[in-house]
Specification:
six-stranded parallel beta sheet, 12 strands
Amino acid sequence: MGAGGRRGGRPTLEMVAERAGVGRGTVSRVINDAPHVSPQARAAVEEAIAELGYVPNRAARALAADRTDAIALVIPEPETRLSAEPFFLDVLRGVSAELADTDMQLLLMLIRTPQERRRLAQHLEAGRVDGVLLVSVHEGAPLPDLLERLRVPTVLSGRRSERERMSYVDADNVGGARSATEHLLGRGRRTVATITGPLDMYAARCRLDGYTQAMDAAGHGVDVSLVAHGDFTEEGGRAAMRELLERHPGIDAVFAASDVMAGGALHVLRQTGRRVPDDVALVGFDDSTVARHSDPPLSSVRQPTEEMGRTMARVLLEEIESRTTVRRHVVLSTDLVLREST
């Protein structure tokens, strides 16, 4: 035999079994990290693998385990939002980091049209992925129901409502928005407005709820004319800020439900001669690069977006491995980061 015990050519599973003095099935169970293998047998197999330089055939391994070793990160949003909002890239970074030490391949899928949704359904029905991470969940969106019907292991980023059935990883949107609004009120601001996200998203409704709770607790109540509806885009933030200034020229504080919208609001405030924070204090949500690189830098509610991505991937891997039907609901805490805008 040559170096490392090889007889020439690529070492096989049978060669590992022979070297370790165990059956082929035992080697397969060790490779797939399956239970019911004695510590002695596992050690012998691992030693034989190291000596022979055996590399498992990934396709055969996945087939034997009825797996594809692939998961899909599905984002039902246009490319413009993907590139403009740091949230998506931070989630992707967290997912990638969690999968780095696994054999899982990550497929990024943007679903923007009914045709692309049908193509995804065909992909899933053919069993080409082991599970799905779904980011950006709108109420009434068809994708979660499709994934449930196909019984594909799925973890959502956020949730559709407080009654969400599927596994999800979310941030404390209510608490974060409440702390932002309380901070503005605590700085002596009297006319505190908010720019909401799209209210067909539970996260946006929760951030509006947090604002409402803080205003009520301070004895101000909520003046609906101080609530402008946005869509988590920069242009949406600009339009909402213009609307608020038309209604209340003396407005002195704004809580925007995303940093991107806060950036749009900041642009309009500057255009109309308002100084931030002297005339109008401004707080965003996400604590993204947008907040840190604005002029002035924005106070913002930090949600652990990258950790959300990591946790989503971890929960999904656990569901795939255990084949469990138990759903997990994880809510991560938020923090208010103060900068020059308040």
